[in-house]
Recover the amino acids of this structure.
């Protein structure tokens, strides 16, 4: 058992990790998905791949993954088209891959628990609280990203683990609490450290296992409360209504 990584996250998040016969670390974690928006991450290398069909399905959710659950990702300053889950087919309309370090925006009509199973990526080093060799070189701007390793911690450690570098003055991170559907926004100030969004005290932001967050890189804010938090449009519910409308229109035309 790799106890160092386990101590970081196992007690609080139910993460189980063990060293396999071949020396790689394998395990699983359970992620509570709430109704509404969830910013998620896949922090294992999963077999056969890290696609939606492999990591979110009737089996991984123990049947709790609801029809019309929707998923999207942030790419070059915009959301990708929605992928919608079809419970009858047990598959997604777009089989996106959610790879190490990426973040996903999952909109669920109901709560469920999803189990992620796989092996820890190559950036974990036993006894080291930071990733090793992780250099994603994210460009400045808003990024929806995550730790490529199932670590949990405050921004003092997790900013480096996510971005592969130390923060600079004025950068911000917005972490979603899916239970309350509210954001915990933090800013970094040189010489002080991570502060809350009003710049009146220390940050309380914590990035948990299975979470991604909004990272505004290279920013230099003169005033607080300015970190953007984009919302994809149309909302998934509108997608479902649009689909029903298309079916009704098709039936009407056939009758004509």
């Amino acid at each position: 058992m790799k106890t160092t990584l386990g101590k970081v996250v196992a007690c609080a998040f139910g993460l189980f990790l063990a060293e396999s016969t071949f020396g790689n670390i394998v395990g699983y974690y359970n992620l509570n998905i709430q109704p509404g928006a969830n910013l998620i991450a896949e922090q294992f290398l999963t077999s056969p791949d890290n696609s939606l069909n492999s990591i979110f399905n009737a089996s991984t959710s123990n049947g709790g993954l609801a029809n019309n659950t929707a998923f999207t990702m942030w790419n070059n300053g915009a959301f990708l088209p929605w992928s919608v889950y079809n419970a009858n087919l047990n598959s997604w309309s777009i089989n996106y891959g959610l790879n190490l370090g990426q973040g996903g925006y999952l909109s669920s009509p109901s709560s469920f628990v999803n189990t992620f199973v796989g092996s820890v990526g190559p950036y974990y080093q036993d006894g080291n609280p930071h990733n090793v060799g992780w250099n994603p070189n994210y460009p400045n701007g808003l990024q929806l990203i995550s730790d490529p390793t199932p670590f949990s911690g405050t921004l003092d450690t997790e900013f480096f683990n996510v971005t592969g570098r130390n923060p600079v003055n004025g950068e911000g991170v917005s972490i979603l609490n899916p239970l309350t559907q509210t954001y915990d926004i933090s800013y970094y100030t040189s010489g002080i450290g991570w502060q809350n969004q009003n710049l009146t005290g220390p940050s309380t932001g914590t990035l948990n296992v299975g979470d991604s967050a909004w990272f505004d890189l290279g920013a230099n804010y003169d005033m607080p409360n300015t970190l953007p938090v984009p919302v994809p449009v149309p909302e998934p519910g509108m997608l479902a209504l649009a689909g029903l409308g298309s079916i009704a229109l098709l039936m009407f035309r056939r009758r004509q």
